[in-house]
Write a structure and sequence with these properties.
The complex is a heterodimer of chains A (about 50) and B (about 375).
Chain A lengths: L4 E6 H14 L4 H19 L1
Chain B lengths: L6 E6 L1 H14 L4 H11 L46 H73 L1 H12 L6 H16 L1 E3 H4 L6 H11 L3 E4 L4 E4 L1 H13 L5 H7 L2 H12 L3 E4 L4 E4 L4 E2 L19 H10 L7 H15 L5 H10 L1
Antiparallel strand pairs in B: 2-4, 3-4, 3-7, 5-6
Helix pairs in contact in B: 1-2, 4-5, 5-7, 12-13
Classes of the chains: A alpha+beta (about 50), B alpha+beta (about 375).
Chain lengths: ~50, ~375
C-alpha cells in the first residue's frame, strides 16, 4: 500500500474542490483531483 | 504537520501527487495549489454519474467563468463539460463538434432502437399471420387425407363388387321405388353398345373386371353379337355387324390398301381383328371375304359353342379358299355353293346378311 500524501491547498481552492467533490459524488479529494487531471490531459490531447 | 493559515489539508495518493508534480513542472507553477487552481480554471470537470449516460467523456466549451473560477451551476450536466477559459479557440470549436456528434449518436441510437422495436413488432405480426395460415392449411390437409381415404374405401368396395354389378346397382339405388329397373339396366349396357357399335375386350379390360358377365349381358339382353377372337372377344351391335358384313361382301380384294379405303377406322379395326383370328378368310375364287366362324349371337340359337374355328391354319386365302370350296357336301362345287348362297339369301332376305352366317355354318 502506498502512503497518502498530505498537501496544503488554499481555502478558496479547497472550497472549489469540495464543491466539485459534492457534484461529482466522489468519495475523496484524491478522486476529484484525478478526474481533473484526466480531463485536462484529454483536453490537451484533443488540442494537439 | 499544521497547515498554514487559510490553508486546508488534502490527502492524496502517491500517484496522484506524482501527477500533480509532473503537471507543476509542465505548467511551470510554483506550488501544487497553483496547479490545482490552474486545473480548476482550465477545466471544470463533471464526471458521468448518471447510469443512463454511456460514460463517455465529452469535452465542450462553455462561457468563461468569473475570475473566482467557480463553475456556474448550469454547466453541470450528465456529461463532462470542459471549460478552457479564454484560451484556445480551436478547442471550443472541437468541443462543439463533439457535442453535436454526441447528440447525433444519441439520435441514431434512438432511431436504431425504434427500428428494432418496429422490426420485432413486424416479425411478431408476420409470425401470427403465418401461424393462422399454417393452422388452416393443416386443417385442409387433414380433410384432404380423410377424403382420400374415403375415396380409396369407395374404390375398393367398387372393385370388390365388380364394375358390372356397380353399373347395375347404381341406377337401382337412385330409382329403387320405380318399376322396370331391369330394363333400365339393360338400357345402360345396351347404350354402351349403341354408342360404340363394337366393344373390344382389350379396351374394357382395365375398366371392367367381370368381363364374362359383361359379354353375356350384351349377348343376352342387348341382342348384340359376341365374337370370340384369337386374342379377345368383340361385342358388336347386330345392325352394325350386318352392315359390316354387307360392306365386307362388297370387298373383292385382299389388298390391304384398298381395304383401308373402303372401310372406316372402326370397321378396319374389326376387320383386322377378325382376320388375325382367322374368322374371315378371302375366297380367292369367288373374290370375296367370307366369315368363317360361327358367331355367338343372342339370336342365333342352336349354335354350338364348342365348335372349333375353321382352322387356325386357314389364315391364307388359298387355304381359306380350299376350305370354302372343299367343305360341305362331298359334291360341293362352285355352282352348288352359289346355289346355297341364293337359297340362304332368299330365306333370310336380300338385306339381311345373316344368311351368310348360316351359309358358313353349314359349310363348316
Amino acid at each position: 500500500m502506498k502512503q497518502d500524501v498530505l498537501i496544503h491547498v488554499k481555502h478558496d481552492t479547497f472550497v472549489k474542490l469540495a464543491e466539485l467533490k459534492a457534484r461529482l459524488r466522489k468519495r475523496s479529494y484524491d478522486e476529484v483531483i484525478k478526474e481533473l487531471i484526466d480531463v485536462y490531459e484529454k483536453l490537451v490531447q484533443q488540442v494537439k | 504537520m499544521m497547515a498554514p493559515k487559510h490553508y486546508r489539508d488534502v490527502y492524496l495518493r502517491e500517484e496522484t501527487y506524482q501527477k500533480l508534480l509532473q503537471l507543476k513542472a509542465v505548467m511551470g507553477k510554483r506550488s501544487v495549489n497553483d496547479v490545482i487552481e490552474e486545473l480548476l480554471k482550465c477545466v471544470t470537470v463533471n464526471t458521468v454519474s448518471s447510469p443512463v449516460s454511456t460514460g463517455k467523456v465529452t469535452v465542450s466549451t462553455v462561457k468563461p467563468t468569473v475570475s473566482t473560477g467557480e463553475p456556474p451551476a448550469s454547466t453541470v450536466s450528465s456529461t463532462v463539460n470542459t471549460v478552457k477559459q479564454g484560451e484556445d479557440p480551436d478547442s471550443s470549436e472541437l468541443a462543439k463538434r463533439l457535442e453535436s456528434l454526441e447528440k447525433g449518436f444519441a439520435e441514431l441510437r434512438d432511431a436504431v432502437n425504434a427500428l428494432g422495436r418496429e422490426l420485432k413488432d413486424f416479425t411478431r405480426k408476420q409470425q401470427d399471420l403465418l401461424n393462422a395460415y399454417t393452422s388452416k392449411s393443416d386443417i385442409v390437409f387433414q380433410r384432404l387425407s380423410e377424403l382420400t381415404e374415403l375415396f380409396q374405401q369407395v374404390a375398393e368396395s367398387l372393385r370388390a363388387q365388380g364394375s358390372v354389378k356397380v353399373s347395375e346397382e347404381a341406377p337401382k339405388a337412385r330409382v329403387s321405388e320405380k318399376p322396370g329397373k331391369s330394363q333400365r339396366q339393360r338400357r345402360s349396357l345396351c347404350d354402351v353398345l349403341e354408342e360404340q357399335l363394337a366393344v373390344f375386350e382389350s379396351e374394357i379390360a382395365d375398366k371392367i373386371r367381370n368381363r364374362d358377365a359383361f359379354f353375356s349381358a350384351i349377348e343376352g339382353r342387348c341382342g348384340g353379337i359376341v365374337i370370340e377372337g384369337l386374342k379377345e372377344r368383340i361385342a358388336v351391335k347386330k345392325s352394325y355387324w350386318q352392315q359390316f358384313l354387307e360392306k365386307l361382301s362388297k370387298i373383292d380384294t385382299s389388298d390391304d390398301e384398298r381395304i383401308k379405303k373402303s372401310l372406316d377406322s372402326l370397321e378396319l379395326k374389326l376387320f383386322k381383328a377378325l382376320k388375325e383370328s382367322a374368322l374371315i378368310i378371302f375366297d380367292a375364287t369367288a373374290k370375296k371375304w367370307i366369315f368363317a366362324e360361327k358367331q355367338k349371337t343372342g339370336t342365333s340359337s342352336g349354335t354350338d359353342a364348342g365348335t372349333a374355328p375353321p382352322s387356325t391354319s386357314t389364315t391364307n386365302s388359298a387355304v381359306g379358299s380350299a376350305t370354302a370350296t372343299s367343305s360341305g357336301t362331298s359334291s360341293s362345287t362352285k355352282a352348288s355353293a352359289s346355289q346355297r348362297k341364293k337359297h340362304y339369301k332368299k330365306r333370310y332376305g336380300e338385306e339381311d346378311e345373316s344368311w351368310l352366317l348360316q351359309y358358313v355354318d353349314n359349310v363348316a
